[in-house]
Amino acid sequence: MLRSVPSAVRSLIPSTGSIVFGQSVSYSQVTSNITQISTKLELRNHTSLKNEGFSAFQVRPSLTTRAHFSTCGHCNHDNAPTDMCASSSDTPKCWSCPVRLSGTKSLFCKECGVLQPPVKQDHFALFNMAPTFDIDTNKLELAFHALQNKLHPDRFCSRSQKEQTFSLAHAAHINSSYTTLRDPLARARYLISLHKPELLSEETTVTDTTILMEILELRERVADTDDSEELFRIYQEVAVKKAQTIEKLSEAFKREDYNAANDAVNTLSYYYSLNKELLSRVPGEVFSKHNVCPTL
Ligand SMILES: [Zn+2]
After folding, report:
1. Torsions phi, psi for 235 (to 5 deg)
2. Ligand 1: distance of its center to the CA of 80 in Å?
3. Is residue 225 pLDDT above 60, yes or no?
4. With DSSP H G I counted as helix, E B as strand and the rest as coil, what are the percentages for the chain, rounded to 5?
5. How far is the CA of 96 from the centre of ligand 1 (A)?
6. pLDDT tens digit sequence for 18-57
7. How many Å lie between the centroid of ligand 1 and the Cα of residue 106?
8. Cβ atoms of 99 and 115 closer than 8 Å
């Protein structure tokens, strides 16, 4: 978040001000300085400041003048002028021409149109989604298909070798992020890895004895029967348990209780493995007969 003061602002800050010109200062330092020097601003300065990324001025009834910044489209910091966004100051140049990209997440160079390499960003950021457990799965689907469509390797077969390599890397990143976010268990593990990764290295155990007994009982019933109708009934019971555990996960993440979330993850992974076994043992016609779509 550090960046040099724009020259127009620099020229307005009194030489006795707290900012040494040329040094890097934070956005808040600059805004507080603007407020401090506000009475010194004159109308003729407005245009030059505007050119530097300051979108508007407002003359307050008190006759003090205050700068208002446009929202930065790059970092989404409210009221941060684009040229003061740290990320935009760090924007890389296009690998193919000398032009600086419009943002770190730019996929294509606006000047020469070539595909840029993928940047390191978390799965949620890739799809412009908030990093929460309860996600809008329709939004995820739309964002995934839009990105996949833009960056599919088939679209780059007549492009340079470098762009082909980048498109493969983009496609792999998009697919792995999508797979992780789409599945509640993988999404929960990923969220825990972002907040409390040490929990994931611990042994996977279900500590709640009631839940543990339920899981053992279900396992026993699965092992003891070859009756497809009974297996289907257990499949449905497991589906209910899965949904209840996902609800617990959602509550735990809302409370930011990562220990409880991790407990629910451990329970859920047992139900996932039971579910997987049942899917392999319940014949497809039994699902059809009951008009139930088998779900992973
Ligand atoms: Zn370029």
Report:
1. -55, -45
2. 26
3. yes
4. 55, 5, 35
5. 5
6. 322 222 333 333 444 443 333 333 322 333 443 444 333 3
7. 11
8. no
Q: Exposed e or buried b for every residue in 141-171, given b needs 16+ CB within 10 A?
A: eebbeebeeebebeebeeeeeebbebbeebb
In CATH, what is the architecture of 200-289? Answer: Up-down Bundle (1.20)
> Is the pLDDT higher at 262 or at 67?
262
Distance 99 CA to ligand 1 centre (A): 6
Domain limits, the chain: 7-84, 123-197, 200-289
Gap from CA of 102 to ligand 1 centroid (Å): 11
pLDDT digit string, tens, across residues 80-101: 333 333 344 567 889 999 988 8
Q: Which residues line ion ligand 1, judged by CB < 5 Å?
A: 94, 96-97, 99, 109, 111-112
Task: Give residue 108 CA to ligand 1 midpoint distance, Å.
Answer: 8
Cα separation, 129 vs 197, whole angstroms = 21
In the block, which residue shows the tokens 């004895």?
209
CA of 176 to the centre of ligand 1 (A): 28
Equal CATH topology for 123-197 and 200-289: no
Distance CA 129, CA 110 (A): 24
Q: How far is the CA of 75 from the centre of ligand 1 (A)?
A: 21
Q: Is the pTM of this model over 0.85?
A: no
The architecture of the domain spanning 123-197 is Orthogonal Bundle (1.10)
Ligand 1 centre distance from Cα of residue 152 (Å) = 20
Residues constituting the chain:
296
